[in-house]
Structures are given as C-alpha cells and as structure tokens.
Fold each of these.
Amino acid sequence: MPAIVAVRCVLLSSPYADADDPEIKECFPNGPKRTIGMVEITLDNGVNGLGEGYLAVFAPLVFQSIVDLCIPQVIGKDGFDIARRLKDLRSLCDYWSLQGAARHVIAAFEIALQDAKGKSLGVPVYELLGGAKAESIKIYGSGGCCDAKEQFLREMDLLDSLGITIYKIRSVKRDILRTAWAMNEAGRRGISVGVDMCQNLADPPQKVDEVVNFVTAVHALTDHRMMFVEEAIGPDAPEGFKELRSRIDVQVCGGEIITTPKEMIERIRNDVYEFVQPDASVMGGISAVMEVFEAAQAHGTGVVVHAWGGAAAIMASYHAAFAAGGELVEYPMLDFPLGAEMIGDQGRIVDGRLLRPTAPGLGLTLTSEMEARYPFDSTAIYNCVLFDWGPPPDSYWKT
C-alpha cells in the first residue's frame, strides 16, 4: 500500500465577509480576513491529500506546532491504513489533549488521508465509507450575523437565488424585536428561521429561563415559529439543554465544539439535543462523524453536520453526510474566496439542495499560485473574547 513520504502544514489567510459584518466587528479585531490550517499528505504514488483542523481559525501557530509534533509519527507508514494512523496519533496526543486542540489536528491528518486514498483509487471519499445514500441533501443557509435590515435582506436574496428555504440567524436574549423582524421578513419569502444563540462564546452563558423568555417573547410578535435554537445554553451544561427541551416547543440542538465521538454519543444517549452538529475538522475526522451518525440513528436523534471552516473542513463533513444518509447540511453564507475557489463546482446548490460531489477524494483544488495569492497573515485570527461593537438598540427593529 502507498507509504506516506511527506507531510506539510499549510496556513493560508483569505478575505472574509466585509468590514461592516457584525462577526468581523465582534470577533476579528484586525479586520475582515480569516486564516485556515491544513495538512497536506503526499503518498509514494505521487498523490497528495488535504485535511483541515478548525483550530487554525483561532490559533494557527498552535495548530502548526502540533502538526510538526505529529509528522514523524506518520512518515514512512501505510497511508491507506487510516485507522492505524489515527491510533498512532492518539497515542502521541491523548495523554495531554484527550479532548481539545490535538483532536482538531488529528482531524486534519485523518481528512487528508481520506482525501489521498479516495484520489488514489479514483473515487469520492463517500465511496470509501459505503457510498452516497442520496443524489442530493437539503441545505440551510447559515448567516444572520446582521445588525442592519439591508444586511438581512441581502442574505435572503442570496437564499432565494439558491432556492434555500431554511435560514439560520444569530441572536441572543436581547434580540427580541430583531429576531421577530427577521422571521417575518423571511416568512414572506417562504423561508423558515432557526436561531443560533452562540453561547459557546458567552461567559457567563444565558440561563434556561432567559432562553425560554426569549422564545416566548419572539413568538408573541410573529405568526412564524423558530425552526430550532442552537447553542442556547453554555457548552458545559448538558442538563440545561435537557431542561430547555422540556420547556419550549422548538427543536434544541448543539455540539459543534465537541471534540470526541464519545462525548457526543453520551449526550445523544442522554437526550440532550433534538439533533447534534458534529464537525469533521473538530472531532477527529470523517470517521468520527460517521460514528456519531451511527449512534444517533440508532437512538432516533438527528444529525446536521456543522460547516463553518475552510474548504477541506466543509467538504469532509459533507462527504460524511452523504455516506451516512444525512438529511440536512449547513451552507456558510459569509464570503470566503479561498474556500469557494478550493471547492469549485463540488459544492453546487440547486433548488435548495446540495448536489452529490463527484470528483475523486474531497474534490478540492489547491495550487501553488493560489497559495501565493492567499499568504498567511498571523494577525488574521478569530478572537473569542468578544468586542462590544455597539449594535443598534432592539427598538431599531420595530416595524
């Protein structure tokens, strides 16, 4: 079987969203540019594969350092024995990072190996996992980081152009009039709205009572109903999610930051969420997401993969969804030229559905010329210590 002959850490930075976007004002203190971190693995058959760890969006040099630590563990080894390579990497990292940063890096290696194997065999990655279960999957638009009406309307126009009928917006407990306004505007277009409350970034996070009051207040102002609430409670409070499920008639979901299948499967079996949101670039790779799908399907819990990284992260989760029979996936709406260029025509959306990718491996494109156009900028990081950018008062959204 092909041996691994080279491994390269690739850090690239690309323009992202625009300076007026609230996510930029709140989380990107150095302006509208974002970094991604990838592992490129080359086999002795000349094929290379790309994988991504979400960690690099936040701490690119930490990502690079852990990649460098891992490289000697895989050089010269069988590139097709992905399970064994993962076992070796976990042996190297689990003592000091059973959860957290190392799992993102292990994910990058696993995804790169899946990509290289698929390309070597001339098949898409989902074929390595048992084949695609559908020709297309329903997709929802993920955006709504808006503090002006025209921003929302621009995103809704994009959804209309793609035939997408589900829209996820970002809101917190103070955003009652804003959320109702967005739901009413979307509803006029036949678009349902889910709400991401972003409590992974809050310290302290919202309380269950506050979320219940928020949902009740919003629903009192509109005939439409939230499709789901995501990350409405802090990530370390699974019992809070369970309580919330018992108190509102809205789907409760979460799990994008969970870094091991074991923890997510425990939450599935504990009925913490209506549906879970694993991310291949966070959890240890595509195989980890497949484990989650298997456990969730056995328990009757939904799975909607998280997709907010770069191209390799997104396509890894999409391939897992196709192989596992996923029924809904996420489409990140904020402009990220590097990601779009790498994905090319392998992420086509028609009539609100993601078409099955057909290229070997993950179907990604990365050339030296592209790398030269998107050089790494060490200041282009996502800062989780949120800045108060002065959003308009909720009264702005009165109609």
Note: Residues 101-121 form the longest helix (21 residues).
Amino acid sequence: MPRLSDEEWFEIYRTAVVEVRQVVDWASTRAELDVQRVGVLGVSFGGLVSAISMAVDERITTAALIVSGGNSGKIVQKAKARVLNREYRTSEAEYRAGQQQYTRYLAEVAEKGFEDVVPPRQSYLNDPMTFAGYLRQRPLLMINARWDEFIPREATLDFWEACGRPAITWLPGTHTAIWLWYPLIR
C-alpha cells in the first residue's frame, strides 16, 4: 500500500461520496423504489464513506456501518495492522499535537457546522468523526469486530459516542474475518 497524500485521500473519499449520492439520485427516478427509505451499508472503508454520505445527504435515512469508526489519526496511530503503522504512524508527540488540533476543530464544527469552518488539514474533511454530529438521532447500526486489527476499539467507541450512542454489536472476529458472520447478520 503506497502512502497517499492528504489531497489524494480527500479525492478518493470525495469521489466515493459523490458516487453514493449519484446512486440515491438514480433511486429517486425509479417508481418501484421508495426514496423515503434509502439506506446505506458500508464495510471498512465503505463504512467510513457511508457515514459521511449519510451525514451530508439527508435523503439517506439509515445506515449500517460494519468494521468502521472515526478519527483517522487515532486509527492509524493505534491500529495493530502493520501496513497502517508503517505508512502513517507518527511520533507520539506529533500524534498528541494532531489530536489536540483535531479536538479543537471538532468543537468548532459542533458550534458552526463543517461548512463554515476551514479545516487546518484537508484530511479532516474525509474523517467520519467530523460528521458524527449530523448522525445523532438518526437510525444507525454499527457492527464491529472484537479483535479488529485496523480500526481500534477506542476509535470505534469514540465515533459511537459522537454519533449519540446508536445500536452497536461486537462480533468475535477480526477486521478481515468479519465476513464469516455475514450470514448471521440480519
């Protein structure tokens, strides 16, 4: 996995969110679909994209986020997956400074809305935690792996708390083995 810049990550997320919204646009043209009942389901990166998509598009009324979370800085710093550690982990001092900056940014977003706050780092705009306040009081289900090596439990719980404590389930498994539970997820 090559290291991507903040700008490259932003473009990947932006494109994915636009594509989700285009599917909702398409669904709204279909007589056989109830546009009042549009939901998204996302796994891993798809969960991050689904959370952002639901936050910015009120036509998406519900979501299921599987092995997902928020606070990308915390995810890459605390993940057990070597690929994230190798490419994105920073020194402890840089991490703490970044978390302080992000916390200040999140407080300002909570007060003014993300549209009216210039992020100190572009990457804040592709972090579900930035949009968590827009998911409060909305139907949301989080399904997570108890031994997730990519999304640390702490990052999931922080996001869960920021979303207003929606329904959450922890399945015994890892990030890459959670699919074994798919037949049982209803």
Note: DSSP finds seven helices and four strands in the chain.
Amino acid sequence: MATLTYEKLRTVIEDTGGSFVRLRDPVILPRAIKNTTELNGSRRAHLCDGIALTRFLSWLDRQIPGTIDEISAAKKLEKFRIITTQEMGMKLEDLSFDTISAAGKNGAIIHYRVTTQTNKRLNAGELYLVDSGGQYREGTTDVTRTVAIGNIGEEEKRCFTLVLKGMIALSSARFPKGTRGQDIDVLARNALWKAGFDYAHGTGHGVGSYLSVHEGPQNLSRYGSQELIPGMIISNEPGYYREKAFGIRIENLMIVKPAQKITNGDIDMLSFETLTYCPIDRQLILIELLTTQEKQWLNDYHARVYQVNAPYLDKEDKKWLKKATMPL
C-alpha cells in the first residue's frame, strides 16, 4: 500500500491546479491552554514529583562524595519517583525524557546524556546538575536542580546566584496581556548579562499534559513570538555553562495566570503560578548578591516547599528539608 507523504500530497494538489497553503495546526494553541482538570492534574503530578525529588536530594546529601556516579544517581531518583507515586495512589508511567545526570565538567554540556563511557563520580568540590521529569496520567513534569557536592568555590557560587536571580525575576514577573515570550526572556538573562555571561538555549518551553515535555507554541526565548495566555504551562530554566568546568541550571514549571489587580491600575495583567516545589541549594547562594525582594521571594518559596512536602516525609527527610528551607 502506497504511503501519501507530505511532499507527495503537495505535489498532487499543485499538479491538479490546486494551491497548497501552509497553516498552523489548529489543535496546537487550544492544546497549550490547559483546562481546569489538566491544571489540577499538573498540580497533583508536581506534588508527587516534589516529594520524590526532596527525598532524592536528602538521600544524596547523606552520601559520601565520590561513592555515587551519574548513572546510579539517576536510577535512584527514578526509584524515588516510583515509590512516591505508589504511596500517592498514582503511577509513574515513564520518565518524560532521559534524565540529565551531570557531575562536574559534564554539567557544561547542555544536553548531556550519561553513558557507561562518560559516567562520572560525584566528587567533592564539584557541582551536580540533574534535569529530570516524570510522565503521570495527571500531568508531565520537568525540573532541574544544581547542588553542591562537598565544599564549592566562590566563583561557582557567584555564577549560581546570578542564575538564581534570573529565575526569581521571571517567577515574580507581572506583564500585560499580549506579552510574548520574547518580550520577557531578558528578565532571566539580565543578571548574567551584567556579568558578561549568557546561556545558549531558550529560557522556557511549553509542557504538555501527559504529552510531550516540549510543547508549543509558547516559549521563552528571543524567538518566542506566541502571546502568553492564561492556562499555558511553561518552564523557567536559566543557566550558565563554563566549558570543561561546570554547568548550572535551575528549572521550575509555571502556569500563566491573571495577576492580582493593583489599586488604581489601568490594565489587566498576567503573572505566573509556580508548579514545582523542591528546595534550591542554599549552600550555593551568595546572599550579598541578592536584593531584599529576591531574598523574600526565596524565603517565601522555601516556606511553601516545606509546607507542601513535609507532611509526606519521614522523620529523617523532614529534618533535612527543614534545614534546606531555612530563611536566608
């Protein structure tokens, strides 16, 4: 049976006198604007994911540097996701993508995929970047954390704090209706630009509902021409990568939503609701580089991380989380 390919179809239409018109798939935009059921499902999936990640980070912090490698760390995280979903009456259907488990210089490779040949130990004095996600029937997750293995140098801390400032700026943004991704991408890059740094990837991509972890048409980048509309889910993932040295990325998922009205304000505004609740490594933050508002955002975020996750943790993990989310 012959297959009618895209190009064959175009040829048939044009050869018979027709006009072949390229239009955007009409399903793409409605699919990107999640309904109430999808949004609530995503919140449930992220609750489960946050608990699993917290358990993983607590476990990782107790390991002796140099005894864990990238492959074993990724497998352990997947195991925590499986166990947590079972406890929550859910099921991890699959990973939403192959986990990026990158230690030290491997973290500088933006889309690194560990193999038995590249597998590296998590050694003291290095950063560990883990970008992972799960596919649940309730929703799709994608989260990145960069953590310290042992004591870390001041330069790595400075770079981490600059990335964090960008993530906070975007998380707390207010913007008018009609704003496109390319209009606010700069918010995540500004602190890095001031230091002469940047990152060679987009700041955010759309995420599906038990579908593709990379979903359009919305994105946060210099090419993001799609208007941001309430109900869209999008990632917030600035980073910094120093070749053959280290990589840093911090990623939360967010929902576009109407912003709280400001007294005497003239126009309706939009903002973001954070979906991801997982601690950000306080050991890597140079507090003196944060503004009062940035410190308050992080303290409020960590208070929420503890409130959301603590009821599901055992005594040991709860104690670890309490320390990990202490106010700056």
Note: Helices lie at 6-15, 28-32, 36-61, 70-87, 154-171, 181-194, 292-309, 315-324.
